[in-house]
Specification:
Blueprint: E1 2-3, E2 13-20, E3 23-30, E4 38-46, H1 49-62, E5 71-74, E6 80-86, H2 95-103, E7 114-120, E8 131-138, H3 139-151, E9 156-160, H4 162-170, E10 180-185, E11 190-196, E12 199-206, H5 210-215, H6 224-247, E13 256-258, H7 268-276, E14 280-282, H8 285-288, E15 290-291, H9 297-310
Parallel strand pairs: 2-5, 4-15, 5-9, 10-13, 13-14
Antiparallel strand pairs: 1-9, 2-3, 3-4, 6-8, 7-8, 10-11, 11-12
Length: about 325
């Protein structure tokens, strides 16, 4: 999404650093000769409070394998809005400025306090490319994240949204050739992306999140209350699939892939498959990306956003 130009950095890797309230998730993806990705580093550094998080970031910056590597991070969901708007009939270099005025009444904060970026939306069923996706992020947290990482000695180059980070993962899935749905559940909600051949067609955020599903579950499978809450997830996924097929005139997706979970939900994939009539599987990052060592399920789950962000690839 957003780019920060930094000189004299290595071009064979990308380090994602994603601080949150409980620590810092970090992932380093390298590409020898610009080729296939390798997960050279994947760590979760527990931390409490801003000072502790800053210290963990400084530790990362001091590591030899992280020095002079461009850095990316992810905007938190509460700090941005993703919109679809009609593309203004202006030259490409004027597009960002033009869409600012189209979205000023569509966001819940002043447009003067927004950082805006634009990316392409695939053609609709008529082949028309009339719309674009617009990201409107709150400037204060964007600049705060940049300052936080810069202050730790981490040269921020990109700041992406979760939807585009998940697209990076989906592009590596075998299902993405014919189209795939990727579902990420965090504590408070879910994010679904629909992609095909590396292009993001559609995304949807929804509740319930993982906390609601886990706290209502049992060790033996789905409790009645969990099933009821999962039905809400099924409805959101089905609506998205229907829109993907009708608006974009796409064939049904090849399957639904569930990103690694910080807490297991017994029976989750089987129930989703039975209700959606789709092949549903749990993603194992060890099978997707070569790495220096195998990742535990817990580490995969906590570092999934960082790995997804680090997979960004902009071949020259």
């Amino acid at each position: 999404m957003l780019s920060f130009l930094k000189p004299r950095l290595r071009d064979d890797g990308l380090l994602a650093v994603c601080p949150d309230g409980s620590g810092v998730a970090a992932a380093l993806i390298t590409r020898e000769g610009g080729g296939e990705p390798t997960l050279a580093l994947c760590e979760r550094l527990p931390a409490t409070g801003e000072d502790d998080i800053a210290a963990r970031c400084r530790e990362l910056a001091a590591r030899r394998d992280c020095q002079r590597v461009p850095v990316t991070s992810i905007v938190q969901a509460r700090d941005y809005t993703l919109l679809t708007v009609e593309s203004p009939n202006v030259p490409a270099e004027e597009l960002r400025a033009a869409v600012r005025w189209r979205i000023k009444d569509l966001i819940d904060f002043p447009i003067d306090e927004a950082v805006v970026d634009v990316f392409a939306m695939p053609p609709d069923k008529g082949g028309r490319e009339d719309n674009v996706y617009v990201v409107a992020a709150r400037a204060a947290p964007v600049h705060s994240r940049a300052s936080e990482l810069e202050g730790a000695g981490l040269p921020l180059r990109y700041l992406d949204i979760p939807e585009l980070a998940m697209r990076n993962v989906a592009a590596l899935l075998p299902e993405d050739v014919g189209g795939t749905a990727l579902l990420h559940l965090d504590a408070g909600g879910g994010l679904l992306t629909l992609t095909r051949q590396g292009s993001l067609f559609l995304s949807r955020r929804f509740a319930p999140g993982l906390d609601a599903l886990v706290h209502a579950g049992t060790a033996d499978g789905l409790a009645d209350i969990t099933q009821g809450r999962l039905d809400a997830v099924v409805i959101e996924v089905q609506r998205s699939l229907d829109y993907y097929e009708s608006y974009f005139a796409q064939p049904p997706v090849a399957g639904l892939v569930v990103a690694p979970l910080t807490q297991p939900v017994p029976g989750l994939t089987d129930y989703l498959a039975s209700q959606l009539g789709l092949a549903v599987r749990q993603l194992d990052m060890n099978e997707l990306i070569d790495g220096a060592s195998a990742l535990t399920p817990e580490l995969q789950a906590y570092c999934f956003p960082a790995i997804a962000a680090a997979l960004r690839h902009d071949p020259q």
